[in-house]
User: Fold these one by one.
Assistant:
Number 1:
Amino acid sequence: MHIAKSILSIALAFGGVSLTGTLSAEVDCLTVPGCVVPVSSSPNKSSFSDTFSTALAVPYDSEHRTYLGIDDGRETFKMSDIRADILVVLVFDMYCHVCGQSADNMSRLEEKLNGKTDDCRVRIIGLGRGDTQFEVETFARKFKLDFPVFSDRKHGLSDGLGVTRTPSGFAFICDANGGFELVDSFSGYLSKLKLEAFTNRVGALCSKE
Amino acid sequence: MMVAKSKWVKALVWLWAGTLAAWSQTVEVSELIFQPGELSSRDSVLKVDVGESAPDFSLPNLTGELVSLSSFRGKKNVVLSFVPAAWTPVCSAQWPGYEVAEDYFKDTDTIILGITVDNVPTLHAWTTAMGGIGFPVLSDFHPHGEVAETYGVLRSNGVAERALFVIDKKGIIRYIDVHDITERPPLEDLVKTLRSL
């Protein structure tokens, strides 16, 4: 009987359905550590370039400017200006309830990367898809996201990354010349398991750097 | 022994088949959203104005209890948030966003009343799928769209506009935003008004 219960638990866990019978919101890639969810559309290097070369207003928080390595008095910057070995871009929307459900785990991203990425400089930014700057900052304040966040009101930045659903996350390897390469991504609800798997993979990238 | 093994194999196959079936039925709210196609940004004529007394109404909430606008007079500022319909784009995000922004409403002693022309069971299913909504959600279903019509935000196809009305504690309308139905009203515009009350 115990064996049967165990088998049932394992089967249901992989099916994304709990023992109480409630349907889980996690439908893809969530119970499989190491699983990479591809972005829905097919962005290419060119569309990434558009995103990385779009002018953004520098954060008014001096700690954020220092964090991104853009504290030299400029008024605008591009994502390609960010001083990082690996840049993690989280795309969310204040009005997306799955983003709200994922926010606690988003706020733990930096903490989870600590110890895994000591060998390289990882920087995280957030993009509010469809949000005004007021809205994206409201989301960040509500859920205690410490990293800099930026408005993507017209979707231009996140469309360039191939985002069609939120939240989504991307990891880019960056070089000193402003070059970048997409190496990892996830989309949909950010569970603890998905966060763990994503940070493990980013950590592994760091050790290769 | 062979019979016992065979039973176990059968049980496993059934379990796995059931699991796959359940997995295939698992959907996210976004997959349930109806895409209405092109819509005109606005399709109604306002019947109230800033500075006027807000017309009173009583509408059922998600448990069927009647909620009256006048019950908040002298107690709370009120934001009436009309959205076109359950299970449609934009609407399915706007109210969860107000949950994230709840501190602004608390700080300004404001309650939101969400209103659509859908019936209570539909609103129950929709808001449950969105993880629940923390403010009263009211059904303007019967007589159909009567409150939306009174305020002048009922479209010709029977759904409401995406509209915001801010009503102060004296029952006076202080702000109206009948927004493009395809866009979300910027939060800062609403917050600025609430802070000015």
Number 2:
Amino acid sequence: MSNLITRRHLLWSVPVILVAAAGLAVTKMMQPPPEDLDVSLSKPTDRGLYIASVAPGLAPIVIGTMHGWVIQITTPEGLPVDHATIAVDGGMPQHGHGLPTEPEVSADLGEGRYQVDGMKFNMPGWWVVKLSVNGPAGEDTATFNLVL
Amino acid sequence: MRASTIIVSTLIVGSAMAAYWIMAPQRTWTDEETKLVLSLGLSNLPPLPADPSNAVADDPDAASLGKALFFDTRLSANNEVSCGSCHAPEKQFQDDLPRAKGVGVTARRTMPIAGTAYSPWLFWDGRKDSQWAQALGPLESGVEHGTDRAYVAHLIHTHYADQYAALFGPMPSLDQIPEHASPNVLGAVQDDWHALDDTQRDAVNRIFANVGKAIAAYERTITPQPSRFDAYVDRLAAGEDTSGILSPQEEDGLRIFVSKGECTKCHNGPLLTDNYFHNTGVAAVPGLPEDLGRIVGTDQVQADLFNCLGPYSDAGPGDCIELRYQTKGGHEMIRAYKPPSLRGAASRSPYMHAGQIATLGGVLIHYNTAPAAPGGHSELEPLNLSTKELASLEAFLGSLDPILKGDQP
């Protein structure tokens, strides 16, 4: 009798395991971005040396369309930071790949504003854009999140 | 024993509910799904982007000359091969072959033409950055047209001089140019090219580039045609009843396409391609030379004499943004290839960059199982779709076929 129950248990466990596996697979495939994702377009840099703000030149951003961004760098007190060197990088954290382009600062607009050209996103989903800012106060970084 | 029965029964009921939740087709779209589905419709396709590198891109006379050249078999070493031999209009401008047959056999599958005017990169590896620069490659390939730029220039001089002159100005004298000469064709043809002076080379290069520009003007008129899916999207966008346009199975396939099939990662926008490059672990073809895909194309397009920034481009310095901001890529560009548009793909077997997979069902099994790449790293992960789901997906892809098949301009 107890043997029979064990066998039944085994048999019944098959659909349970299958469903659990399918559920896990779906969860993995459908990975949404973290719920508490910070999608603000203005924030202190990681070490607090600057405040970085970004303004995409396309609203809404269209997948596959190259466009420019304006980046504003200020001191924590809000004074514009001029003549900073800014590098732009990024990618899709869940897919392990970078941007499909290599954006660059194309113009120093003054008043702590910088024109970045060559921005493009080629997939829907969660993207990060990482700024490396080298200014009078030193080097610092900031990461912005976008969900397209 | 009683307790275990209750537990097991609960598990069964629970698993059945979970299975229903996972498997049961939903009949309404979430806002997110609706947004994604609408983004794929042909109505969302913007007007043809300008090609500043080609001054005659939108000139009907250039398109007329380009069409004549496109179908002219004299543009080949054996007088039997034209662009249209592999890009056959009645087959969506491709050839249904695993690898193209010109005067020889190539290492890659012929790509269709519709919508390529929207792509910043041409060829599977994006080694060209415009339709006109792309058109020049096969002319000098020893296995495609098997000709060379001096031969092409002479042919234009003999047969198309008036049409050419009307578009590009009078042709220079080619009396001192040998019958065959090119930097890209090894042997005597290359020696003869090196024997030319800079002015002569420039004259030949310019005629050659203009041939590409005329062909591109024709190719720009080859555009994607509406499918049943587009009719569905138009109704959905208008908030009208969509029933009867797609079968329930096709509609289920569409749902999988925009959700757990993850198809829109690469096949997005109204052309259902991101026109970028992806390693999807497609097998190498035994016996062919190593094919590294985009990682090679990325350098080739930068070095191309006929690119947007080159001396034969009509673009201004600020026009070539794709080339200017092109990523050099890295490991992820090894064996990465451009996803073709899925419009009409259901009737374009065989599949992949060298025709490695014979059927659409086989392609879906490939994506579902995500085999390891023979080189580089595949972006795919197993999808774990059921046989039924794969069949739905395949059915949906059929709804992307043009309603009106056959000849175009």
